[in-house]
Amino acid sequence: MTLQETTSLYNQLLESSAAAPSAEEPEAVVRLRSSALARFREKGFPTGKNEDWRFTSLTPYTDTHFSLEKISPGEDAIRNAIAETAIPGLDAYQLVLVNGSIRSDLSTLPDEKQAIIQPIDVAVSSGVFDAYLHENSFTGSDSLLALSTALFTDGCYINIPKGAVVDKPIRIIHIYGAVDNVFFQPRHLWVINRHARATIIEQSVVVKDDRTLSLANSVCRVALEEDARLTHYELQQNAAGERWLHYSRVSQQRGSRYDNFTFSMPGADLIRNNLEMSLDDTATETHLYGLYLVGSDQLTDNHTAIAHQHPSCQSNQLYKGVITGNGKAVFNGKVLVSQDAQQTNAYQQNNNLLLSDHARVYAKPQLEIYADDVKCSHGCTIGQFNPEALFYLRSRGIDEAAARNLLVEAFAYDITDKMEDEPVKAYMQQLIHDSMTTTVVAG
C-alpha cells in the first residue's frame, strides 16, 4: 500500500535539480539513487497510516516552504557555536562539520593510524559506501532513508583501522547555517574494524534567528567488525524552530560491543530518533540508554529496533522520559529474536515521569520471540512524583521546586551513572539540572 504524504517540501524535493545524481559517482550508486528517489516519490513522507508513525505526524513540519540551499554561518558564529558546545574538562579530538562539510582548519584530528576521517564523497567515489546502502528500515523510516540515499551530498566517513585504539574521544560538532527556512540532509558512515576501539560524541547547532525553521533528515550508518567496540554519545541540545529526524543503523559482527547514550534536552519542536541494531553474528553485546526531557508543546519520539539473529547475544535497553506542560513523548522499542538466536539475553525497560496533567506519553515496548532457549523481559511505567518522597524532602526544609528537581535528577541517575567518560557525565548532569530548573519543573 502506498503511504504518500504530499506536502510543500515533498513537491520541492521532487522538483529540485538536486534530484539529478552526480555523473562522477560510480554507476552502481547512480542506479541506487535513482531507485531510492522512485521509492520516495511513491511513499512520500511517513503518515499516521504507518504504525511506526502513528503518534508523530510529519505534516505540520513539512507543509511549508524550505530552502534547499546551504548558507554558511559567519566565522564568528561558527566559533561561538564551538565554544557554546564545549564540555568542561574533556580532552578530545575535535571534528567540525559546517553544513555537512569538514572544516579542517577548525578540527584537531587523530593521526591516520588511529582514525581515517574523510568527506563522505570519498567513500562514495571509492565504492566503499555502496556496501552499506542496500537496507530496509525496521522502524518505518524507509521513505526517509530512501530520500537520504537519493539526495544526500555531504557528511563524513570515519574508519577506525584494524586493532586501533583511539586514545581519546572524537567530538563531532555539526554546525548548520540558516537565513530562511532550510532543509538539511547529512549522511555519515562509520566503520570500526576488527579489534578497534573508539568513543564518538555528537553535538549539533543551527545558527539562525528565532523566526527561522530548520528540518534535518540525518542518517548515520555504523558497522562494527569482529571484536570492535564503539561508545556513542548523542547530545541533543537544540532550540525552538528546529526539527530533527535522526536515523542510525548499526550492524555488529562476532564479539563486538556497541554502547549508545542518547540525551534529548528540551528545546527543539520535534526530535525523532530511529535507532536500529542488526546483530549479525554470535556473542555480540548491545547497550542502548536514552533520556528525554520534553518541554511544553514539544515532541520527542524514540524508536528502537534490535534484531537478534544468532545465538549467545545480549541486548539491554533503558529509556527514561520526563514530560511537562503540553509536551508529548513517544517510545517504541522492538526486540526480534529469530529462531536461530538461542541463548539470547534481551532486556528492555521504559520509564516515564509526567509533571503536568496535560503531558502525554505513548509507550510500546515489544518482544517478538521465535526461539525457545532465551531470557527476555520488557516493561514500562508511567507515573508522577511519589508524594511520600516529596513530603520527606519538604519536611527536611527543602522548598518544593528544589525537591522536585532532586527527584527528577535521581530519576535520571540510572542513565547518567552508566557513562564511563567522567567529563561527559558531569556535563550532562549539569545540563539536566539546568533544564529541570529553567524549563521542565518551572514550565
How does this model look, in words?
This protein has one domain (69-440). It has helices spanning 8-15, 27-43, 59-62, 75-84, 120-126, 142-151, 387-395, 400-416, 422-440; strands spanning 93-98, 101-102, 116-119, 156-160, 170-177, 182-184, 187-192, 197-207, 214-224, 229-236, 242-252, 257-264, 270-279, 285-294, 299-308, 314-323, 328-337, 344-354, 360-369, 374-383. The strands form two sheets. Strands 2-1-5-8-10-12-14-16-18-20 form a ten-stranded mixed β-sheet, with helices on one face. Strands 3, 4, 6, 7, 9, 11, 13, 15, 17 and 19 form a ten-stranded mixed β-sheet that branches. The longest helix has 19 residues, at 422-440. The chain is α/β, with parallel strands linked by helices and 443 residues long. Helix 2 (27-43) packs across helix 6, helix 7 (387-395) packs across helix 8 (400-416) and helix 8 packs antiparallel against helix 9. A hairpin with a 2-residue loop joins strand 1 and strand 2 (101-102). The radius of gyration is 21 Å and the shape is globular. The protein has nine helices and 20 strands.
Summarize this entry quickly.
Helices cover 23% and strands 37% of the residues.
- H/E element order: HHHHEEEHHEEEEEEEEEEEEEEEEEHHH
Distance between the termini: 42 Å
What topology, given as strand order, has the largest sheet? 2-1-5-8-10-12-14-16-18-20
Shape label: globular
Tell me the layout of helices and strands:
Layout: H1 8-15, H2 27-43, H3 59-62, H4 75-84, E1 93-98, E2 101-102, E3 116-119, H5 120-126, H6 142-151, E4 156-160, E5 170-177, E6 182-184, E7 187-192, E8 197-207, E9 214-224, E10 229-236, E11 242-252, E12 257-264, E13 270-279, E14 285-294, E15 299-308, E16 314-323, E17 328-337, E18 344-354, E19 360-369, E20 374-383, H7 387-395, H8 400-416, H9 422-440
Parallel strand pairs: 1-5, 4-7, 5-8, 6-9, 7-9, 8-10, 9-11, 10-12, 11-13, 12-14, 13-15, 14-16, 15-17, 16-18, 17-19, 18-20
Antiparallel strand pairs: 1-2, 3-4
Helix pairs in contact: 2-6, 7-8, 8-9
